[in-house]
Please model this.
Amino acid sequence: MVMRRLLTVGLVVLGLGGGLLGLYTLGNSRTTQLFGEIFARVETSKPLVALTFDDGPTVRFTQDVLDMLKEHDAPATFFLTGKEMQENPAQTRAIVEAGHQVGNHSYSHARMLLTGPATVADEIERTDAAIRAAGYQGEIDFRPPYGKKLVTLPWYMSQNNRKTITWDIEPESYPDIAGNADAMAAHVLEKAQNGSIILLHVMYRSGEASRAAVPKIVQGLRQRGFEFVTVSQLLASRSEEAP
Ligand SMILES: [Zn+2]
Model:
């Protein structure tokens, strides 16, 4: 009897542990969420890839990044925070006027795992307002801070027909190559496939190697036959192929 009770308790603990592990995995997953559409890569037969930059805009680095993209005639998708857009409206407008895609990266860049519905709506809607205030007219995709989301955030996204965009290539997440532009570019060239979404952080001083990697990635992938498009264009290439 005691053994049996112990066994039951043990199984319950295991079950709870497994459930929590499952929730943890789901909260961090780049390819799965409970509700709404999420894209870490786009299924397409065309050799298209999207370059995406998270955070900012900042006064110090926005123009450098825009100049670099212009020099290489490469479009990108910028996931910006509402707070930084409000602080730096001129930089936000410069990104929009250069013709790049702008996405919503939340207002305050807080982890949104157990956030309540009112806060989620506030984080998203204030950021949308800042994007529109800069003159951006396209559909606004969303990327969760730290890639984290669990229940409320995906629910809000699905209720509002919004797409969540993550990534399939993130060279900065490998500590042995993160500070080295050549090594990061080599990683991206090795991993890229049709429909890949590449993530880099280029808006702060810490992003020096990532900024230096951008031209190497653009030139290297073009040599391999890839074309750079925005996330919206990447998604459009998918729907064109739908039966
Ligand atoms: Zn971020």
Remarks:
- The radius of gyration is 20 Å.
